[in-house]
# Entry
Amino acid sequence: METVTALVAAGAAFAASYLIGRSLTASLLLVMLGGLLAGASFAVLFFVSTVTVGHMMPGLFEPWLLGVHFIALAIVGPLGGAAIAGLTHRHVERADASRLPF
# Structure
């Protein structure tokens, strides 16, 4: 159960980072910071939501495994989010530049 919720949180963080990289027209550094923030916020949201559900329904989550998944998500989420946002932004810039007539 913890693994599924961690994968959902990681997928949501990476999807948000993709949208940030695709929609923001700011500099690459600001886009990457937005992806980093999206990854970190989804890691915190994962932890808060699973702890809250774990308190409401005792025995549903394994506390040790929840901590392991949170630590992994706290490391992978921001770094992956920044990389996805930066690469998406770079791809969109190159695709837009290739369409210019000059």
About this structure: The two ends are 54 Å apart (CA to CA). The helical segments are 2-23, 28-56, 63-98. Residues 63-98 form the longest helix (36 residues). Residues 2-98 form one domain.
